[in-house]
């Protein structure tokens, strides 16, 4: 059994290869039970959690376990720790223990970009990203792999983190304009694609500011009572999700409008597996607003970890 660390994961993956692997994997037969997320504290102000995510397909079985302690930053520790265990499907033998923290960053961004490849306008030029945490550079690199953006605007509470991220991106992508800004009507109106990757429990912008043709990618929130986008945004959009089972169990973005009686689960137009099987552009016209809500799936962990293992075995990391 191989033990694969963060550095090996980083060396093994590229977004074009990972996005392609996710498309193939979601389009083929698989089993993905609902993930189990356990709150570790009964206090409503504490969001510490432990989760287990199983999945399997015809070649491999996988399970990811992770802990989420959002206040760890103040203690000088990471907020997320994760491992993925892979087993062979034929005989059930252990194949690898893969660093799940790094895989999670890669697969979250790649899932987002895969959905955007189906839903974002092909002429999208302005990307607005909320959040400047560990996930933000992965999100930006993934989206740059599926659309030709001229401008990326970063919006974040922590101005120092945002400035550091911008400096890194300017060096890596000198042909693209990177700006720092705050959330306001003019910015949201100018966006072709909006990604929200924050810990915010309240909407980041007013949905009435959205322009026709915008695609919104919502990935930061996993709580029933919280949301990164408001009801106006949901009602204005065609809604797609990574997993109906998980999203309708966890995501306030949809659960709050459902509780308000203005949205129903039947209005979700498709899951990522449906999108991957069709594997073509899903926007029906250029002026519609689309939204993809992701809370994470065990299958994306399985597929990403399996790709890492294959690359390691081939000597590519």
List the domain count as a whole number: 2
Q: How many strands appear in the DSSP assignment?
A: 15
The rounded Rg comes to: 19 Å
Beta fraction: 15-25%
Briefly say what this structure is:
36% of the residues lie in helices and 25% in strands. The protein is an alpha/beta fold and 317 residues long. The chain has 2 domains: 2-103 and 299-313, 2-Layer Sandwich (ornithine cyclodeaminase, domain 1); 119-296, 3-Layer(aba) Sandwich (Rossmann fold).
Architecture overview:
The protein contains 11 helices and 15 strands. Strand 4 and strand 5 (60-68) form a beta hairpin. It has 2 domains: 2-103 and 299-313, 2-Layer Sandwich (ornithine cyclodeaminase, domain 1), CATH 3.30.1780.10; 119-296, Rossmann fold. The strands form 2 sheets. The chain has an 8-stranded parallel beta sheet with strand order 10-9-8-11-12-15-13-14. Strands 1, 2, 3, 4, 5, 6 and 7 form a 7-stranded mixed beta sheet that branches. With 317 residues, it is of the alpha/beta class. The radius of gyration is 19 Å and the shape is globular. It has helices spanning 6-12, 15-27, 100-119, 136-144, 159-172, 185-190, 231-236, 244-250, 252-259, 272-278, 298-313, and strands at residues 2-4, 30-31, 36-39, 49-57, 60-68, 80-88, 94-99, 126-130, 151-155, 177-181, 193-196, 215-218, 237-241, 268-271, 289-293. Helices cover 36% and strands 25% of the residues.
Helices, strands, pairings?
Blueprint: E1 2-4, H1 6-12, H2 15-27, E2 30-31, E3 36-39, E4 49-57, E5 60-68, E6 80-88, E7 94-99, H3 100-119, E8 126-130, H4 136-144, E9 151-155, H5 159-172, E10 177-181, H6 185-190, E11 193-196, E12 215-218, H7 231-236, E13 237-241, H8 244-250, H9 252-259, E14 268-271, H10 272-278, E15 289-293, H11 298-313
Parallel strand pairs: 1-7, 8-9, 8-11, 9-10, 11-12, 12-15, 13-14, 13-15
Antiparallel strand pairs: 2-4, 3-4, 4-5, 5-6, 6-7
Helix pairs in contact: 2-3, 2-10, 2-11, 3-4, 3-11
């Amino acid at each position: 059994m191989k033990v694969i660390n963060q550095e090996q994961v980083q060396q093994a993956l590229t977004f074009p290869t990972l996005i392609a692997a996710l498309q193939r994997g979601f389009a083929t037969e698989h089993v993905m039970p609902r993930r189990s997320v356990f709150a570790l504290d009964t206090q409503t102000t504490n969001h510490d959690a432990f989760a287990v995510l199983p999945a399997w397909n015809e070649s491999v079985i996988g399970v990811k376990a992770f802990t989420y302690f959002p206040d760890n930053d103040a203690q000088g520790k990471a907020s997320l720790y994760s491992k993925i265990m892979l087993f062979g499907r034929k005989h059930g033998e252990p194949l690898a223990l893969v660093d799940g923290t790094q895989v999670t960053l890669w697969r979250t961004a790649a899932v987002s970009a895969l959905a955007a490849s189906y839903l974002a306008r092909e002429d999208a030029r302005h990307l607005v990203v909320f959040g400047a945490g560990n996930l933000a550079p992965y999100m930006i690199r993934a989206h740059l792999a599926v659309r030709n953006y001229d401008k990326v605007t970063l919006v974040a509470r922590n101005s120092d983190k945002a400035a550091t991220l911008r400096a890194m991106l300017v060096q890596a992508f000198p042909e693209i304009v990177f700006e720092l800004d705050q959330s306001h009507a003019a910015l949201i109106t100018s966006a072709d694609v909006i990604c929200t990757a924050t810990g915010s429990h309240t909407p980041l912008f007013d949905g009435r500011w959205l322009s026709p043709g915008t695609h919104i990618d919502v990935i930061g929130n996993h709580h029933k009572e919280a949301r990164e986008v408001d009801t106006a945004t949901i009602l204005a959009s065609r809604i797609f999700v990574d997993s109906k089972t998980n999203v309708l169990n966890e995501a306030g973005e949809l659960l709050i409008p459902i509780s308000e009686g203005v949205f129903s689960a039947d209005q979700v137009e498709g899951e990522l597996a449906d999108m991957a099987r069709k594997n073509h552009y899903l926007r029906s016209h250029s002026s519609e607003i689309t939204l993809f809500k992701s809370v994470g799936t065990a299958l994306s962990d399985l597929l990403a970890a399996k790709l890492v293992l294959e690359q390691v075995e081939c000597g590519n990391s």
